[in-house]
Amino acid sequence: MKTFFNLIQEVQKPGKCHHCGGCVTFCSAINYGALKTDPQGKPVYADIERCIECGICYMICPETGVLDQEIIKEAGWQAPDGRIIGTSVAKARDLIIQESGTDGGVITALLAHLFETGKINGAVVSRNMETGRTPWLATSKEEILDAAGSHFNLSQGMETFGERYSTFSPSIKALGEIRREGLERIAFVGTPCQINTIRRMQALGVVPADSIVLCLGLFCSGNFTLTKENFHALESKYQFDYHDIEKINIKENFILRLATGEIREIPISELDPLKRTACRYCKDFSAEFADISFGGIGADDGYTTVITRTPLGRAVFAQGVEKVLDQHSYKENPTYASHAEAMVLAASKAKKLAAEKNLRELEPSPVTVMG
């Protein structure tokens, strides 16, 4: 039976740990207390004597591959990019949600509607706090609206900004609150690696993933951390002042929206040195195991590309279109959604190829013994 010790050797040391928090969350949820996360978000032993070596932390890690076949079967996953039932381009009908949310506020509008109709009584999302991008268990429509978008208050200066703008939030950590809150119908919003971990927890039937009824996945080119030094270099090259940043978004490029109304676009490739190491080995761009996947790539400004992947996801999105979402008109551009899907598939292929190349470089080189 492989344990957390093996995760350290096989996943952490090669740099493949995504800091998704699944191992720590499970261990904490059942009060084993053997694991914790360090200040950088890396899982570590809290008390090695409390580890019962059950091996579940190893099985639910998305990098071990232990439960690959189980989650592929459960999701009805199909090569090369998962099951795709339908692709649409949409935005929130509510103008306030459109403005405050990311890419037209589709996820915000859907979650608010699910709260209003009683389909969920909690949602794991992320919001920007003074200490950084933080996972949050929202328990009302009002809290969902409060968490919308990626807006920033930079009054604390560049030192704070360097800490707070990471594009990653360890959202699985918020699952630890589910039992304490007594919630049993949770929507989870997360990156592909986080959705993958949730599906593994569900495959094993372990807490607290048994309370999750809907997985909403985010397109992900990688997670980036911006520090004072590298951001100053971008300021000079792209002619902006960080004090003017109102919103940051990632589509085909890294997009900065300024208080002046101007937009600065930085090629994603230019930020590659700032990418989390584990992201170099991740093959999933479009959250292939989610019920619904979302992202800005392929969509016009103010719209979201939406891929429904399960019957549940299709039903939730259809209800959203009926009540709170507007789809891009098919009559105006019959090929718009198919073009958006093609762009997603191209980005997905590029990420897979890059990950495969990087993984090959981790393999030990053969040793030739001269006789």
Characterize the structure shown.
- The chain is of the alpha+beta class and 371 residues long.
- The chain has two domains: 1-66, Alpha-Beta Plaits (2-Layer Sandwich); 81-151 and 159-223 and 283-355, no CATH class.
- Helices cover 36% and strands 19% of the residues.
- The protein has helices spanning 4-12, 22-29, 56-60, 68-75, 95-100, 106-116, 141-147, 157-164, 176-181, 192-204, 228-238, 311-323, 336-362; strands spanning 35-37, 43-45, 86-92, 122-129, 132-138, 186-190, 212-218, 245-250, 253-258, 263-267, 292-295, 304-308, 325-327.
- The strands form three sheets. Strands 5-4-6-7-11-12-3-13 form an eight-stranded mixed sheet, sandwiched between helices. A three-stranded antiparallel sheet has the order 8-9-10, with no helix packed on it. Strands 1-2 form a two-stranded antiparallel ribbon.
- A hairpin with a 2-residue loop joins strand 4 (122-129) and strand 5.
- Helix 4 packs across helix 10 and helix 6 packs antiparallel against helix 7 (141-147).
- It is globular and about 65 Å long.
- The model is unreliable at 151-168 (pLDDT under 50).
